[in-house]
Design goal:
The structure is a single chain. By secondary structure, the chain is α+β, with helices and mostly antiparallel strands. It folds into two domains: 113 residues, Helix Hairpins, CATH 1.10.287; 135 residues, Immunoglobulin-like (Sandwich). The protein contains four helices and ten strands; from the N terminus they run αααββββββββββα. The strands form two sheets. The chain has a five-stranded mixed β-sheet with strand order 3-2-1-5-8. A five-stranded mixed β-sheet has the order 4-10-9-6-7, covered by helices on one side. Helix 1 packs antiparallel against helix 2. The longest helix has 34 residues. The protein is elongated. It starts with a helix and ends with a helix. The relative contact order is 0.14.
Length: 266
C-alpha cells in the first residue's frame, strides 16, 4: 500500500514539473494533431495571457498535490486500525483562521493580475488602423474604413480545391485572407449580421463574440510577420465548423502596396 502511495505521489510531482515544460515547448501558428499547449503568442495580449495561465497552472497544481498528500496522510494516520480511539476535538480556532485566510490570499494573488489583464486586453488606445469584421452564415466580411472603404468576403477553400504547393491548409485557408501590417495598433470592430458568431485568433489572444445589432471591440499589435489562423468559436449553424479566418501579417510597406492594389478594384 505504501509503495503505491509513493508511486502516485512521484507521478504527480513529475507532472507538476514536467508538463508545463512540455506544454509550452510546443506551439506554432496553427493547431496540430494531439498538440498540448498554446500557439506561439505574437501579440502583447497573447503573451500576457500565457504568462497568467502559467502562474495559475503552478497554483492549481500545488493545491492539488497538497490536498492529495493531506488525504493520504489522513487515510494512513487516522484509519480505524492505527487510530482506534479518535479525538473528540470539535474546534481549533488557529486552524480555522488559517484555512479561511489562506484561500482568500490565494484568490487575491489570482484576482489582481486577472483584472489587470482584463483591462489590458479590453483597451483600444490610439489605434493606427481600424478593421471591421462581420460574421455571417458561414463566412466573414472584412472592411477597412480607414483605407477608402476596402471590403471583401472571406470564405473557406473547399477541401477538394486545396493546393498544398501554395501552403494552403485544409479547413483553415480562405479565398481572401485578412491582411494586416506588423507592429501596428489595430482596433477590431466586431459584429454579426444574422446569428451569434465569435471572432477568434489564438495567436493574437483574441476571442470576441460577434453579436447582431452590437459592435464589440478588441485590439492587437502583431509583432511578427506570418500567416495566422482562427475560426468562428460560437455555434452558428450547420457549417459552423467551416468558418475559418486566415490573417496574413506583412510589413508596413507591403501593407501600403496591398491597400493601393485593393483600391483599384473599388
Amino acid at each position: 500500500m505504501l509503495n503505491k502511495v509513493v508511486v502516485l505521489i512521484g507521478a504527480m510531482l513529475f507532472s507538476l514539473v514536467a508538463l508545463p515544460q512540455v506544454s509550452f515547448a510546443l506551439g506554432g501558428l496553427e493547431g496540430l494533431p494531439y498538440e498540448f499547449g498554446f500557439q506561439d503568442p505574437v501579440t502583447p495580449v497573447a503573451r500576457e495571457m500565457q504568462t497568467f495561465h502559467n502562474m495559475l497552472l503552478w497554483i492549481i497544481s500545488g493545491i492539488t498535490v497538497f490536498v492529495f498528500l493531506l488525504l493520504v496522510f489522513v487515510a494512513l494516520r487516522f484509519n480505524e486500525k492505527t487510530n482506534p480511539k479518535p479525538s473528540q476535538t470539535t474546534h481549533n480556532v488557529p486552524l480555522e483562521v488559517i484555512w479561511t485566510l489562506v484561500p482568500v490570499l490565494i484568490l487575491l494573488v489570482i484576482a489582481i493580475p486577472s483584472f489587470r489583464l482584463l483591462y489590458f486586453s479590453d483597451r483600444v488606445a490610439n489605434p493606427d488602423l481600424t478593421v471591421k469584421v462581420t460574421g455571417l452564415q458561414w463566412y466573414w466580411t472584412v472592411e477597412y474604413p480607414d483605407n477608402g472603404g476596402i471590403s471583401f468576403d472571406t470564405r473557406m477553400i473547399p477541401s477538394d480545391e486545396i493546393d498544398t504547393s501554395k501552403g494552403q491548409k485544409r479547413l483553415l485557408s480562405v479565398d481572401n485572407p485578412m491582411v494586416l501590417p506588423v507592429d501596428t495598433n489595430i482596433q477590431f470592430d466586431i459584429t454579426a449580421a444574422d446569428v451569434l458568431h465569435s471572432f477568434a485568433i489564438p495567436a493574437f489572444g483574441i476571442k470576441k463574440d460577434a453579436v447582431p445589432g452590437r459592435m464589440n471591440q478588441t485590439w492587437a499589435r502583431v509583432e511578427k510577420e506570418g500567416t495566422y489562423f482562427g475560426q468562428c468559436s460560437e455555434l452558428c449553424g450547420k457549417d459552423h465548423a467551416f468558418m475559418p479566418m486566415e490573417v496574413r501579417v506583412v510589413s508596413k510597406e507591403a501593407f501600403a502596396l496591398w491597400v493601393e492594389e485593393q483600391k483599384k478594384d473599388l
